[in-house]
Amino acid sequence: MEKLSKLFEEIKHDFELIEWPSIRETAKDAMIIVLFFFFLFFIASGIDALVYYLTLIFYSTKNKI
Asked: Does residue 35 fall inside a structural domain?
């Protein structure tokens, strides 16, 4: 029991030594990641729509000739 208590105190001391980032920095990093994936999805959707409409135009002109 004494060893367990000593181990617990050691872990508690190590935990207090850690320099935790502030909530503001963490939220800022999370927001940057979310915005990055949002714009990645937005760009991918735009490319997908562009390919769709170009394919539509290509096949509609191909059948007329």
From this structure: yes
What is the distance, to the nearest Å, from the Cα of residue 14 to the centroid of all Cα atoms in its chain?
A: 30
Can you give the residue range of the structural domain that contains 46? Answer: 21-65
**Residue 16, in any domain of the structure:** no
- d(CA 13, CA 36) in angstroms, rounded, equals 38
Q: How many domains does the chain have?
A: 1
**pTM score of the predicted model:** 0.50
Q: Which two tokens stand for residue 31?
A: 């927001």
What does the pLDDT look like over 19-39, one tens digit per residue?
878 888 889 999 999 999 999
User: What value does the mean pLDDT take over residues 33-62?
Assistant: 92
